[in-house]
Amino acid sequence: MRHKIEVANLKLGMYVAELDRPWVGSPFLFQGFVIESEEDLEKLRANCTFVYVDDDKSSAPAASAPAQNRGSAPTSSVTITSRASTTDKPAFANQSDIRVITKTLAVAHMTIVRTMDDMRMGKSIDTQESKAVVQHLVKHVSSNPSSMLWLTNLHQKHEHTAQHCLNVSILAIAFGRHLNLSDEDLNLLGLGAVLHDVGKMRIPKEILDKPGKLTDEEFARVKSHAADGYNVLKLARNIPDQALAIVRSHHERVNGKGYPDGLQGDAVPRLARIVALADAYDMMTGDYPFRAAVPPADALRILRTEGADEYGADLVQEFIKCLGIYPVGSLVQVGSGALGIVMASNPSSRLKPLLMMVRNEAGQNMNPRTIMNLALLPDDKATNDKWNIQTVVDPKQFDIDVSAIVAEEVQFNK
């Protein structure tokens, strides 16, 4: 049962189901949330006069609210949904789901770090944990793809190999889902992606993190990681051959110029090519000691112009379709000059994604940040002139750290 409650009467534990204003443009990231802190209360008091509280989802009942405050909640223009099957709205997890997702990613990250450490110290590798992690990743990517892609913008600077493996797994699963792969193949894909770089743990850190150009000897050492990872994981005897093939062949290229076996054309396993594309994209969009990040849209442009010969033109085109015209994590500038980060694409209106606005038209950082679904704005000249995306920009040009912003938002909504 829902009750209309003045913000002055709100309590911790109440579940806010509706606002007295549209969720679009409000500072609240999720449709529906439990009031968990004084900061939540202050935010509501600053932005609303009343809200609608759902007793069934609250730990603090709203039944004691004054009778004159009760009523039917208005129809919401909500834009954030919790299921990717919605075809006319950008999908993004609700607050409850995001907590589960972030816990899953934390467990996944710790599992990958342990696997890397075991590889580094020559211990036997427990792949059962990795398999369980991948099953959860497949589940969350299938239900909340945009949310999972949003969280790949979190880059752990001190454990970049582990974070990279996690990101590649999410990207590969999302791409495999776009290609309508079976759940069995998605799990194989995710497992191979999670483990694809374990062989790098046999390479000295000073080579992996070397900021300058590698010598021929050093480059040969780096190239050995694919075969090294494969040989060690094969000893585990419980990893499917298709996942092992991903580990060994994720640097093979259809033009025959890859390694370690120089495979060519269809001899390069398709699952390995999917992981290879995800690997290349995450490497380009992440900051590393040896290369600065490029914006997501620029990474896709590079893959479009240079990747067909290496991964296959059809697969590259599908990868670009999967991530969209404005990939999640892109920083865009709208007509007014304001800046926003793409949170989710809109399947029915690709040019009008869901944005988190981070800087206003005056160039000032926005606090709190607001969420705008461009697809739901009025279709008139004044609105279009103000809100239509004009260009994708490089965050570095505006001294904006997308990864830090994502981290702040995730922390706030835990």
Structure description:
This protein has 414 residues and is of the alpha+beta class. 44% of the residues lie in helices and 11% in strands. The strands form 2 sheets. The protein has a 5-stranded antiparallel β-sheet. Helix 3 crosses helix 5 (160-178). The longest helix has 26 residues, at 95-120. It is globular. It starts with a strand and ends with a helix.
Please give a handful of descriptors for the protein shown.
5-stranded antiparallel beta sheet; alpha+beta; 11% strand; 4-stranded antiparallel beta sheet; 414 residues; 9 strands
Strand-pairing-aware structural class:
alpha+beta
General form: globular
Can you count the beta strands? 9
Helix fraction, binned, reads 40-55%
What is the makeup of the main sheet?
5 strands, antiparallel
Topology at a glance:
Elements: E1 2-6, E2 15-19, E3 33-34, H1 38-47, E4 50-54, H2 95-120, H3 127-143, H4 145-151, H5 160-178, H6 183-195, H7 205-208, H8 216-223, H9 225-234, H10 241-249, H11 270-285, H12 296-306, H13 308-311, H14 313-323, E5 331-334, E6 339-344, E7 354-359, E8 365-373, H15 381-387, E9 389-393, H16 402-412
Antiparallel strand pairs: 1-4, 2-3, 2-4, 5-6, 5-9, 6-7, 7-8
Helix pairs in contact: 2-3, 2-5, 3-4, 3-5, 3-6, 4-5, 5-6, 5-11, 6-10, 6-11, 9-10, 10-11, 11-12
